[in-house]
Amino acid sequence: MNKIFESSSVLMFLAVAPFALAQAPSLPVVPLSPEMTISVHDYAGVPSELLNAAEQQAREIYRRAGLETVWLNCSPKLENIEPESCHFSDATHLTLKISPRALNVQVRDRLDVLGTAYPDDKGIGYFAYVFYDRVQELAVRQRLGNRLLADVMAHEIGHLLLGSNSHSLSGIMSAHWNYDQLRNISEGTMWFIPAQSRMMRDRLRDRQGRPWNLVVNVREQKTFGRGFDPGR
């Protein structure tokens, strides 16, 4: 399978004052139809309160786009007693792994890269990754709380739904997060642009309507065990 690397990054030369958190605006009523599940494998020991809050925020981001999401927490320490659904991914059940740090040499020195995803050349992907040390450092420095982790998770899952070359000039799928994007994160107003929302809904409905035969065993997927293998 020809894999394509997609990542989220932030312009690290910014030296802006910390943002004051603002109350997120109420969400409009959006009809929800497609549903997907995301298994979250936390290898970084993220505090449960922070992770749960980030998942809730990411759920709201996708609800705003008209998609319902189910977030399933899968602990590496409890692999023998986890639900069986933690161990498999397919076109409507994706896997997000939170790593303590980026391991591969291609991004190890790229401090601007916060995460990565692997859609193939047909726009299908199952695995996304978040580099927690970088997310945590930026969140503390800019006082972004759980919102930054939520937006990075939503961004990387977005690559698995939108396919390759899915960065945009604005919104949560921006390739580089500068002052404006960080301000929107602090205010809880980083959303998918309407065209991306429609595309994700259409693609997820299409996935639900097809007899997908490919089911990936998460335990046998080697990307995390041997280190990340992203590249532009």
Q: Could you please describe the fold and organization of this structure?
A:
By secondary structure, this protein is of the alpha/beta class. It has one domain: Collagenase (Catalytic Domain). It is built from six helices and nine strands. The strands form two sheets. It has a seven-stranded mixed β-sheet. Strands 4-9 form a two-stranded antiparallel sheet. Helix 1 links the parallel strand 2 and strand 3 (68-74). Helix 1 packs across helix 4. The chain is globular, with a radius of gyration of 16 Å. Residues 1-5, 11-29 and 222-232 have low confidence and may be disordered.
List keywords for this structure.
about 230 residues; alpha/beta; Collagenase (Catalytic Domain); 7-stranded mixed beta sheet; two-stranded antiparallel ribbon; 9 strands; about 30% helix; globular; disordered N terminus; disordered C terminus
Order of helices and strands: EEHEEEHEEHHEHHE
Fraction of residues in β-strands? 15-25%
**What is the helix content?**
25-40%
Judged by helices, strands and strand pairing, the structural class is alpha/beta
Q: How many β strands by DSSP?
A: 9
Overall pLDDT score: 78
Number of H- or I-type helical stretches = 6
Which term fits the overall shape?
globular
